[in-house]
Amino acid sequence: MAASSAAIDGIAASALRSVLQRVQQVTERCGCESHRIRVVAVSKTKPVSLVRQVYDAGHRCFGENYVQELIEKAPQITNHLNHAVGNFESLSPAKSGVEPSGCVELAKHVSLNCLNLQFCGLMTIGMPDYTSTLENFKTLTNCQSEVWKALGIPEEQCELSMRMSGDFELAIRIVFPLPSR
Predict the structure, then answer these.
(1) What residue numbers bound the domain in which 168 lies?
(2) Whether residue 136 sits in one domain with residue 71
(3) What is the Cα–Cα distance from 79 to 7, expressed in whole angstroms?
(4) For residue 29, what is the domain's CATH number?
(5) Structurally, how many domains does the chain consist of?
(6) What is the pLDDT of residues 100-125, one digit of tens each?
(7) 83-99 burial, b if ≥16 CB within 10 A, otherwise e?
(8) Are residues 17 and 83 located together in one domain of the fold?
(9) Do 89 and 101 belong to one domain?
(10) Which GO-annotated molecular functions does the record name (predicted)?
(11) Residues of 114-146 as b/e, b for ≥16 C-beta within 10 angstroms?
């Protein structure tokens, strides 16, 4: 028997609540405030009905990386589709980016040569197969530090997006280590 549309849609709001609860738990253990963590709900390949349910549940930070889907979805969620996620392409399965050694050069290029863009941070991932270690995430936080220093901008103007739902708790613990006991 096929699940009803409402039952399927209920999964999205439930998943959001679960992620937010996990963020709350790990930030409490680390002694930081959960509002310092921004959860970006990635809408790529998801139907507007699921995105809308997450929006109706109160979430206001969405990401998309397919141009066609951005054009369709953004007006329906009151333009809260505000993060480009990964390659901003046309339904391409390709993944790319720069190695940590190239992040400063890329950030400088965007800041100096892409005048219609405002550099505001790095979107990073650990290991693509979710085998990230503490060292992987420390490397990403070092990239952030190198970039804001090289650009001469305040640290808070260089956000660091680290990973996805499979290992975000480890990423949070790197940025906000557990207090010494």
Answers:
(1) 97-181
(2) no
(3) 26
(4) 3.20.20.10
(5) 2
(6) 899 999 999 989 998 888 888 888 87
(7) bebbeeeeeeeeeeeee
(8) yes
(9) no
(10) pyridoxal phosphate binding
(11) eeeeebeebbbbbeeeeebeeebbebbbebbeb
Complete DSSP assignment for the chain: -PPPHHHHHHHHHHHHHHHHHHHHHHHHHHT--GGGS---EE-TT--HHHHHHHHHTT---EEEEEHHHHHHHGGGGTT-EEEEEEEEESS--------GGGHHHHHHHHHHH-TT----EEEE-S-TTS---HHHHHHHHHHHHHHHHHHT--GGGSEEEE--TTTHHHHHHHHSPPPP-
Structure tokens at 88: 């901003």
**Residue that terminates a domain, selected from 66, 93, 120:** 93
Two tokens, residue 176: 């906000």
Around Cβ 172, how many Cβ atoms within 10 Å? 24
Q: Are 69 and 76 in contact (CB under 8 A)?
A: no
In order along the chain (181 residues), what is the average pLDDT of each group of 10 residues? 49 89 90 83 84 86 78 72 56 68 92 87 75 80 93 90 74 69 42
